[in-house]
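Researcher: Good morning. I'm working through a list of sequences from a screen, and I'd like to move beyond sequence-only analysis. For each chain I'm collecting a predicted structure so we can compare shapes side by side. This is the next one on the list. No need for commentary yet; just the structure.
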Amino acid sequence: MADSKNTNSQVMGFLGDLAAGGISAGVSKTIVAPIERVKLLLQVQASSDQIAADKRYKGIMDAFRRIPAEQGVGSFWRGNLSNVIRYFPTQALNFAFKDKYKAMFPKYSPKTDFWKFFGANMASGGLAGATSLLFVYPLDFARTRMAVDIGTGANRQFTGLGNCISTIYKKDGMGGLYQGFGMSVAGIIVYRASYFGGYDTLKQVVFGDNKNPNFFASWLVAQTVTVVAGLISYPFDTVRRRLMMQSGRAEKLYSGPFDCFRKLYAEAGVKVFFHGGFSNIIRGTGGALVLVFYDKLQKMMGLK
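Model: Good morning. Structure tokens for this chain:
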């Protein structure tokens, strides 16, 4: 009987984690959707067969000026529905699995075993991200392709989420929907390890045993972590999204991730890996809000 109660308690805790993480993620992602789309366009426009070299966006301000004029204001949210659908289970599973993986490691004290404490948080965060990615990658792929579709009306490359997935599947099979997956796994481990591990660690270092730090202080810690994690993993993200852009094309641009790295570096040096990076920092505000809202929701739902 005791085992049954413990199991039910664990299930309820897991579902509570899913709800808290998913709600927080859905709201924050919708708020920063325009920045997200601009970031993606700047990041992959050189690999898009829709954007001629002389029509490429010159930067964040140029993109924000031209997008509503050329595609309409509503186009800032292009791909947002699939992003919310994808992001809800992704972030919810990340948070839920992070706590489960975290429970697998010994509970080290940040005061006496700081690096072991930090390593355990990094590992649990990275494993959570990699596990979740396996299930939702086709949705992430579709979101990227829809967000960088600059066509209007009948010139749209994809009419919606279902059309995007079915079109690529018919041309390239399941492999087309998983273009860049290997690089994504590497990037997501680096990002999530820094994101979750850094937040849990910095929160403990800054706040110590204070269970109710003020909202602004929590946000500042989360913002610092998301900016650093985003910059560390950004080159991986650029390569994986460039690989995504070649699905469905008769002529492939890159033979694999290493070839992509090589060609991008030859194209414009190190800076090419950080195109859209500044908008990614701004967008990171949403990621920081997710972390803070998640903590607050857990407390409101009695999970902490």
